[in-house]
Design brief:
The structure holds 2 protein chains of 2 kinds. Chain A has no helices and 11 strands. By secondary structure, chain A is mainly beta. In chain A, β4 and β5 form a beta hairpin. Chain A is globular. By secondary structure, chain B is mainly beta. In chain B, strands 2, 4, 5, 9, 10 and 11 form a 6-stranded mixed β-sheet that branches. A 5-stranded antiparallel β-sheet of chain B has the order 1-3-8-7-6, with no helix packed on it. Classes of the chains: A mainly beta, B mainly beta. At the A-B interface, β4, β5, β9 and β10 of A face β4, β5, β9 and β10 of B.
């Protein structure tokens, strides 16, 4: 059974539309992270989330982005008005155990047309 | 500024031909250096964490080493199923991972 699921696996949306990406871990986590990877580029940090609050965010994570934990079992990343350059794979990640490594979900491919 | 540079960008090996991948880094207060494997269209899969210079970790045909400036991922007698992109990331004073662009490895039978 996978540690975390992400839905949808692929979303196509038109420029200017809002999208919500979801991440559901199989166990509760206080820490959670979102990253993105534009095709052919490096994985980039977006935001870290601890105990229902943003603890750190990158320059990419501007006012168009928001994160929530709508209930105890899932986390969401919202993009309010998508742009072409938001097309990327979006990964959620979480720490496991007492060390610092982060485990990544399978990702959501977002295509903005 | 924290930074990770990986080389080479791409590597083609014959099955059984051992080689090494390099990850050079600059970071304030290294908490950990991480190696991941990524298959096309998938999320990064965790391989190793290294915490201090001189540390080594092994898993099957892979061995990761760490110095104060760089890390190496040694691949011994690779098989075609080892073909993937190998990512290096560092963690400094905060939780965020800073990734390199990766090395795309292809192993031919």
């Amino acid at each position: 059974e996978p540690e975390v699921t992400q839905t949808p696996s692929h979303q196509v949306t038109q420029m200017g539309q809002e999208v919500i990406l979801r991440c559901v871990p199989i166990s509760n986590h206080l820490y959670f992270y979102w990253y993105r990877q534009i095709l052919g580029q490096k994985v980039e940090f977006l935001v870290s989330f601890y105990n229902n609050e943003i603890s750190e965010k990158s320059e990419i994570f501007d006012d168009q982005f928001s994160v929530e934990r709508p209930d105890g079992s899932n986390f969401t990343l919202k993009i309010r008005s998508t742009k072409l350059e938001d097309s990327a794979m979006y990964f959620c990640a979480f720490p496991r155990g007492e060390s610092y490594e982060q485990y990544f979900g399978p990702g959501t491919r977002l295509t903005v047309t | 500024e924290d930074q990770v540079t990986q080389s080479p960008e791409a590597l083609r090996l014959q099955e059984g031909e051992s080689s090494s991948l390099n990850c050079s880094y600059t970071v304030s207060g290294l908490r950990g250096l991480f190696w991941y494997r990524q298959d096309p269209g998938k999320g990064p899969e965790f391989l190793f964490t290294l915490y201090s210079a001189g540390e080594e970790k092994e898993k099957e045909r892979l061995k990761a080493t760490l110095t104060k400036k760089e890390s190496f991922l040694h691949i011994t007698a690779p098989k075609p199923e080892d073909s993937a992109t190998y990512l290096c990331a560092v963690q400094g004073n905060t939780d965020k991972l800073i990734f390199g662009t990766g090395t795309r490895l292809q192993v031919f039978p």
